[in-house]
Structures are given as structure tokens and as C-alpha cells.
Amino acid sequence: MTSPRDDASARLALVTGTSTGIGLALARILLQRGWAVTGAARRPAPIDHPRYRHLSLDLSDVVRAAASLEKDIGPLLSDPRRRRIGLVNNAASADLLTHFERIEAAPLLRVYAVNAVMPVWLTALVLRKRPPGAAVRIVNLSSAAAVTAFPGMAAYCSSKAALRMAGMVLGAELASGGRGDPAAEDVAVLSYEPGLVDTPMQEAARSQPPDSFPLARMFQDFAARGALVPPELPAAEIAAFLESERESGFTERRFGGS
Prior knowledge:
Blueprint: E1 11-16, H1 21-32, E2 36-41, E3 52-56, H2 62-77, E4 84-89, H3 105-129, E5 135-141, H4 154-176, E6 187-193, H5 200-206, H6 216-224, H7 232-242, E7 249-254
Parallel strand pairs: 1-2, 1-4, 2-3, 4-5, 5-6, 6-7
């Protein structure tokens, strides 16, 4: 008999930002471990696997992206064969790395859409659609910028702080026991700081003009002194959490630590 761990229909992961970096590395790890994976990103993902499905969409276009995900992901999530569902809110925007007075409304709205609005909405979608009894593991990719103020990073810091707080609110709801949902005891959310990772976002940060982004040289120094780790390392820790047992509620972890 096929065990739930070996049945591709039993474990589904939804990962945003699978075209590069941690999202791509994580999708490959999960596929190797027998998961079915649905990725969402603006660009194609270099993955050719029968258990991988890619959705090309722009998370900054909230109305269109939500409608597309509800249509395409909703039926996958509610499949009664699911025994475990993972959501990894990995995609992020580091636009608007600039002085506070240079922030404009339209790009600020796009940063919040990608970094906070869509991850919170996707979490709600998973909770609404999951089959009864399915374990749910949610990972929100966080950052030191969610808890520390960095010059030139108002949009990124504040949007990441918003996502961290949303995860904490979900954890508080799960802990309160007032949801009337016995399955909630097997829902866990992790706010995960991957640290300094060699990703396109790091490259973008160190490529900014120092006169408009005061921390550009700091990001250049990270790369110059070899401080960046490959995305496969934090991806492996995220995969381990998705497969974890009985980690209900909200937790925070940093790469390589507790």
C-alpha cells in the first residue's frame, strides 16, 4: 500500500518566487522528496518535472493574481486526498531602496502587494480550502529588516514587519482555541529569516546608487567578503519545517539557529 508520504497527491506545496533563488532551490528539494509543487512567479522556472506546475503571474497585480490563484490553486488545495499542505511565501520586492522623501505611492503599493498583501491572502486561501484533517505548514520568508530599521529601506522594512505581525496574529488565533476548528491544532506558521543569501535581491541591493541608497556599500561588502550562502542551505531548513510534526502555532527562526 502507498503511504501518504510516498503518494504525490498527499503532499502539496505552493511556493511563490520559484524562478530564482530560495524559491527555485526549495521547489527542487521538495520534488526530490516526493512533493507535488505549484510555483508562482512572473518569470518561468527552470524546472522540468511531472509533479511541478508553474503559474506565471504578477503578485503586485493583486486583483488579477488573486482571481487566478483562487481558480487554479483552490481545487488543488481542497482535494480530499491531501494530507499535508505547505505554503511558502517566498516572493518579495526590494523596490524603493531609497530615501524616505523619494517614496512614491504607486511603487509603494506594489511593494506592499508582493511583500504583505498577497502572502496574507494566500494564507487565508490555504486555511479556507484545506481538506479536514490536513496538516498545514506556512513559511513566511522574513528578514532582519522586519525587526530593525535600516536607512533607505522604509518600504521593505515596513512591509516585511507587516507580514511578520500577520503570522503572529494567526498564531494568536490558533492559540486562543476559539476557532471551533479541531484541525487548527495541526496548523503551524514560521517566520523564517534566511540570513545573507546569494540571490538576485542581494545583487539588486548592491547595485543601487550609493547617493540614493546609503546601504549599497554594505551589501557590496557582503558579497566581497564571501558572506553570502547558497540558497540551497536555507531551502533545506524550510523543507524540514514543511515536513515537521506537531509544531502548531507561530514560531520564528533564523538560518542555522533556533
